[in-house]
Every structure is written in structure tokens, then in C-alpha cells.
Amino acid sequence: MTNETPAAQPDAADASTAEAVESVNTPSETETLTRKLRRSRTLNIVLGAAAAFLLVVAIAQPLSQQNPAVNADAGKGPSAGSTEGVTGGATDGAAPEADPNRPPLAEQIARADPNDPMAYGDIDAPLTVIEWTDYRCPFCAKFTNDTMPVLLEEYVDKGLVRYEVRDVSFFGDDSTAAAVAARAAGNQGKFAEYFEVLYAAAPQSGHPDMPREKLIAFAEEAGVPDIAQFTADLDDPALAEAVAASTADAQQLGVTAVPFFVVGGTYFSGAQPIETFHKVFTEQLELAKAE
Hints:
Layout: H1 10-15, H2 27-37, H3 40-45, H4 50-59, H5 63-66, H6 68-76, H7 105-109, E1 119-120, E2 127-133, H8 138-146, H9 148-156, E3 161-167, H10 173-187, H11 191-200, H12 212-222, H13 227-233, H14 237-253, E4 260-263, E5 266-269, H15 274-290
Parallel strand pairs: 2-3
Antiparallel strand pairs: 1-3, 2-4, 4-5
Helix pairs in contact: 10-11, 10-12, 10-14, 11-12
Protein name: Thioredoxin domain-containing protein
GO molecular function: oxidoreductase activity
Keywords: Disulfide bond, Membrane, Oxidoreductase, Redox-active center, Signal, Transmembrane, Transmembrane helix
């Protein structure tokens, strides 16, 4: 794939999530993944540092080797459109039972920064959700346009969920450019608005081009106050390096398909129907409140 990260295999990933309802991981898989990520708070604090990446590599094997749902999105599981479960035959999104002796997986890997421009909601919310997204992914756009507004209204706005976004550039240089633009908007307090505008303009299928003039037009529509500064930030090497670091971090963790979600103590991939998110969020909130 010419403009894609080879290890990610994203084209097959998002193609196979078009209509499929995939299962979340089993308890045994969560245990394995949790062992892997126990020390990853340090990784997130120094995200982008080479030492952090070496730490991740050293402590465990990637997520894609733990959760068959990830490999299914990468074209190694059920075919596109299949509703067959890939983990234990479950297709209803049931969340596994959490280990009461450890914090939920999402809390272990969360940035947990009260000033995080790429996060939504109360940092002290009982449930943490993390999404990995590529701004050129059509199924990321589908989730953002159709499902995310409901989740924000019903969970984030009510103080129940802290929602963190992590960008990846699986689809080449234009993905990097779009992620840099979103971060540049975030520098001016307009990440959420830019995120919404960009995905609202996405086509029904395919990976849209992200030329500079389009990214600037998105900023104007999103209400970014200083367009001159935004335009200058599009060339900021620090922002490009941050996107590269976020992508490398995702790949080290084994995230090979987007959108990818960690919800409390469980994780899954794909533009799932709203019913799946309701079920998983409800169950993980109950576990969080019981702690």
C-alpha cells in the first residue's frame, strides 16, 4: 500500500468493519493485555520519547496478537460484512469482568492531563474511554458523525465519561497533515470543533485528500481565532513529530485497525452500532462505580 504504514494494514482494516458487529475481548485476553500495559502510564507521560517505545516493546507482545478482533479488522478474521463473532462467538459487545485488584485498562494508559486539548469531559469521570483515529479513515468518519455525538451527550456531558482522542497516520502523509492541523487547532482551544468539521466533510467512502487549502478552510469553519498562526503551525515540526510518536505508540501497542477503542477494562475495534457502545459503556460504568 503506497501511502500507508505497512505494519498497520489499514485498508483491509476499515473495509472489514463496514457493517460487522465484532465482539470485545474475553477476560483472559484482558488479563494478558492488562499485564502488558501495567507500566504504560509512564509511556503516556513521555509519549514520543524513544525510551518509552523501547519500554513498550520490552514488556509484552502487541495488542493485535492478544485480541482476535484486531486481526479480523486486518483481514485475517471473518470476511467483510460478517456478523460472526471472532472471540468465543460473542457478538453482543458484552464486556469482560474486570480484575478488582487493578485499575481499568483505560486508566492505565490514559494521558490523564486536565489541560489535554484532545480530550473531552471531566478528568475525574468514573469511566475513561480512549479512541485511536485516522482523519482519512471513512469508518472513523462514520463513527464520529453518527455515534460520537450520542456518546458525548449521554455520557461525557453528564460527567460519566472522560474521552481521549489519539491520532494515527496509517494512510500516509495526508493523514499526518490532517492530524497536525487538528493539533494546531487544539493549540488555540478548537480541537473539538476542528475534529467535527473535518469529519463532517468526509466522503461516504475512500480516503480523502487533505491539501493545505482544505485544512485552512476547515480551521476557518471551526472558528480557529488566529488563522495566520494556525497556518504557520501546519509547518511546525514538533506537531508532526507528535503525530509520528502517537502513530508509533499505537503500532507498538498493536493497534492495527481504526477506529479502535479502549473502554474502561475492555477494548474493541470498528464503527460499531450505537447499541454496542451503550452496552459496553453501561457495563463498564457499573464496574467503575462498584470499585
